[in-house]
Amino acid sequence: MPFADLSIMDYLSRIVDIFLVWYVIYKLLMIIRGTKAVQLLKGIFVIIIARFVSEYLNLHTLSWILENAITWGFLGIIIIFQPELRRALEQLGRGSIFTRGGIQEEEELQQRVTAITDAISYMAKRRIGALISIERETGMGDYIETGIPLHSNLTSQLLINIFIPNTPLHDGAVIIQKNQIAAAACYLPLSESPFISKELGTRHRAAVGISEVTDALTIIVSEETGHVSVSQHGELFRDLSPEEFKELLEKEWTKQTSSSLWKRKGKKQDG
């Protein structure tokens, strides 16, 4: 039907149709994000592209093989993506498929915050020294390469085990990327600022040093006192209570305006 013959309602219905299809595809991609199905989906796209290329180049045998693979591949897709399809149908039945994105991000944020706060609380009470740097906008690939790659899920148990004294990975920094522990035993640059208190050791100088060259949020647990400190933007904030630390971590990870804790007197040390 020519576009000139379409009524306003026809235009609106087609726009709504396109929007709904786009939204459903987007939600389905969000469901499989972070799963092995993403790699399988990339493989399917490669096969489809190869099919068109082979037809364009008149590669008849390859084109026939790929055409049959695509024709009969739908059954394979149902089998391969069975866990994801089942999960999508379950969420559709619960009416949660259209709200999953925000809920999932909130759940992941709370899991990360809980894992770090639990680990920091455990180590602070037992005076286990720790140095944890959380990557933000500035990449920390150069510093990750100096350590031992882990690429493990972020859990409080793993963080605690890494920093247990006299273990192979305890000496150095842990670098966190999103919801993963990217590497341990990493070397961070030491700050040369003359304004850092002489009573502070290598961990605190490394925390300030990395904050001078990146926007990373770095957490320090003192093995002498058990006090928790945080460094960012070249500044060091010492002796945070568990409540202050958790609030700061949540606000920084959600990229909200910095908490008033950063401005409170008695917490800021020149660095």
TrEMBL record:
Entry EC number(s): 2.7.7.85
Domain DAC: 82-242
Gene3D superfamilies recorded: DNA integrity scanning protein, DisA, N-terminal domain
Transmembrane annotation, as ranges: 12-32, 39-57, 63-81
InterPro entries according to UniProt: C-di-AMP_synthase, CdaA, CdaA_N, DisA, DNA_integrity_DisA_N_sf, DNA_integrity_scan_DisA_N
Keyword tags: ATP-binding, Cell membrane, Membrane, Nucleotide-binding, Nucleotidyltransferase, Transferase, Transmembrane, Transmembrane helix
GO biological process: cAMP biosynthetic process
Catalysed conversion reaction: 2 ATP = 3',3'-c-di-AMP + 2 diphosphate
A GO term, aspect molecular function: adenylate cyclase activity
Pfam families: CdaA_N, DAC
Complexes and interactors: Probably a homodimer.
Family per record: Belongs to the adenylate cyclase family. DacA/CdaA subfamily.
Function statement: Catalyzes the condensation of 2 ATP molecules into cyclic di-AMP (c-di-AMP), a second messenger used to regulate differing processes in different bacteria.
HAMAP family associated with the record: DacA (MF_01499)
Protein name (Swiss-Prot/TrEMBL): Diadenylate cyclase
Annotated organism of origin: Siminovitchia terrae
Gene giving rise to this polypeptide: dacA
